[in-house]
Amino acid sequence: xxxxxxxxxxxxxxxxxxxxxxxxxxxxxxxxxxxxxxxxxxxxxxxxxxxxxxxxxxxxxxxxxxxxxxxxxxxxxxxxxxxxxxxxxxxxxxxxxxxxxxxxxxxxxxxxxxxxxxxxxxxxxxxxxxxxxxxxxxxxxxxxxxxxxxxxxxxxxxxxxxx
Length: 163
What we know:
It is elongated, with a radius of gyration of 26 Å. 66% of the residues lie in helices and 0% in strands. α3 runs parallel beside α6 (137-152) and α5 packs across α6. It is mainly alpha-helical and 163 residues long.
């Protein structure tokens, strides 16, 4: 997981070398007797292939799930993005990367009148964003309506504390 680009290149070249060596052994009748070096080379090739597969699938998952660097995040649908922006402006984002549930929970704690909307919105939001299948259109429309309603119930800026 923490391989540098140079280490990845070395692993790949070692894997190709081991694969070629194993292929030569099978072509020239040496397949029945594996020397310790050949066993190590075959093991290195297998490990390199497994590491590349895991790395590739992790990168693909990061792109589709949105847990990568900020520039590579999966886009939020517009109603969710507007709600998240309003929550942040209103001071309900305790830290970068705070989940929607945490931000909405903080908003509800200070504005109890939002509780009913939030209670219906959050399960729909989670199913829409992280569920195994997309929400049915009527449910997605409801999630969007609830997100807009929550957004309208929030202040446009964080309240300033007067001492």
